[in-house]
Amino acid sequence: MYDLESRWKLNGKYIEYYGIRKLPYLLKNRIRVNAKQREIMEKLPKVELTKSEISVLGGLFGKQVVDVKDKKRVPASLEEATFCKTCAANDFMIPGLEFDDNGVCPICASVENVKSFKSLVPVKNTFETCKRSRFDVAVFYTGGKDSTYLLYYLAKVLRLRVLALTWEIPYMSDSAKKSIEGAKKSFDTVEFITRRVSDADLKVIYSELFRLSGNTCACPSLAYVLFYPELVINRVPYFVAGNEPAQILGLYYNGMAPAIAYGFAENKFLNAMINVGRVLTLRKPFKSGQFQTLATMKQLAYGDSWLKKIAGYKNELVDNIVKAISKVDNLVKPLKRAIRSSSFSGNIPAFVQVDFNEICGGTYEWRKVKDVIERECGWVAPEDTGKGLHTSCKIEKCKEHTQFVRFYNMKSKMIPFSALEISIASRSRNLTKEQAIDEIKNSLGFSLERIPECLIMEEYFKR
Q: For a tag on the chain, would you pick the N or C end, based on fewer CB atoms within 10 A?
């Protein structure tokens, strides 16, 4: 009996791999098949293959088409999983994860290949005082660990005038709410703005997003939609992102950001070519980070550009959010107006990234960071004190669960973000392997059984 190898699936003109392949095949998850090969694969599983069929399959036979007795088995629980020798990655949490002959996962094996991948936007750790605005920088503030540490660095270490923007989601954790109140008492150079989308509009968005993704997670995309006009009106020079390093690298291993994207911000030739187009259309050339801002906002307002579609890189999560947001026109219209006015005037807040590893002196260690923000910012840890990923939302575990189940069942090509992030974080020593495994077992949503947190999400938009 012959069948497609485990985690390979026939999708149109391609067979695609749902997992992370070992080097040198990392990210090579798609193989084009011809009409005759496709015809054979459509009949699988099949008891016997003729010599002619084996000849047609060529190099696919024995690798992508195998005897069923030789098919790789996907673990049904964490207890059955094989773990990487050096990090917390395992083939239950990331089904289809391959290991090399030494038992090392491709995330660890490729560490030298990605050591320069710091950000998709320009890295900037110091900022000048802005004379044309009341603010030097703006941040999206959730009350979580990472955004609180970013706020601490900008407001207390650099003493900047910060505009802190909070989208009040229905699922904000109690600890995040307390942390926001603690931050308001701790920072004297920060102005806080909070916005809440009406329940009527949010239910429309969430219902569509649930239909598309199986969950309602729209952060931070919907926050961008809400606050970009605010940034333009206030002439804020910089919008500062504080994603921890593991989140940034996760996009690469998920096939959502090509290697070239991590060097784009520093590529003088490409940026010069873009600015030639700006000048020829009688607009001001982009300053560092402004192109990234407009590209981000335009994607949310209009969908992917033709260039990104041709390149073949797709962010399934953002694509679904864009489709859901488009259902509420009165949210998108102000964003489109702000895009047009800022693009014409050049009054575009530059999208930049603070390098958390660098400002921490080498490694962004989660436990040390928590100690700092508890002491300096009035930050309140979640009830689950072992949790290090995404500490501001009640349904984060539900998002992890739904992403995991969809990927496990090969209904989505998107590897669960938290699975990648916790693996990368343990590889990079943001936390130890033992701490990471403990968090996977006790704090994250990697279960094939439905988890209680899903009810929190569904009760909101179905009531």
A: C
Q: CA nearest 373: which of 201, 217, 107, 153?
A: 153
Q: What is the pLDDT of residues 380-410, one digit of tens each?
A: 988 765 555 556 777 888 889 999 999 999 9
- Are residues 20 and 106 in contact, defined by beta-carbon separation less than 8 angstroms? yes
What pLDDT sits at residue 122? 93
Q: CA-to-CA distance for 65 and 3, rounded, in angstroms?
A: 6
Torsion 404-22-243-234 (CA) sign: negative
Whole-model pTM above 0.90? no
The model's pLDDT over 44-102, given as tens digits with 9 standing for 90+, comes to 998 899 999 999 999 999 999 999 999 999 999 999 999 999 999 999 999 999 999 99
The 8-class DSSP code of residue 62 comes to T
Strand duo 14-17 + 8-11: pairing: antiparallel
Q: What is the 3-state secondary structure (H, E, C) of 114-159?
A: CCCCCCCCCECCCCCCCCCCCCCEEEECCCCHHHHHHHHHHHHHCC
- Nearest to 74, CA basis, from 98, 91, 88: 91
CA 281 – CA 11 distance, rounded (Å):
42
Looking at residue 228, the DSSP 8-state letter turns out to be H
- Between CA 354 and CA 359 the distance in angstroms is 8
- Tell me 9's DSSP state: E
Domain coordinates in residue numbering, the chain:
1-72, 77-463
Question: How are strands ordered across the β-sheet holding 190-195?
Answer: 190-195, 162-167, 137-140, 238-241, 350-353
**What tokens were used for 101?**
């002959």
Q: How far apart are the C-alpha atoms of 243 and 458, rounded to whole Å?
A: 28
Residue 455 corresponds to which tokens in the numbers above? Answer: 């009810």
What distance in Å separates the CA atoms of residue 382 and residue 392, rounded to the nearest whole number? 8
d(CA 300, CA 339): 11
CA separation, residue 289 to residues 2, 35, 264, 266, 368 (Å): 52, 45, 11, 10, 30
- Is residue 16 predicted with pLDDT exceeding 90? yes
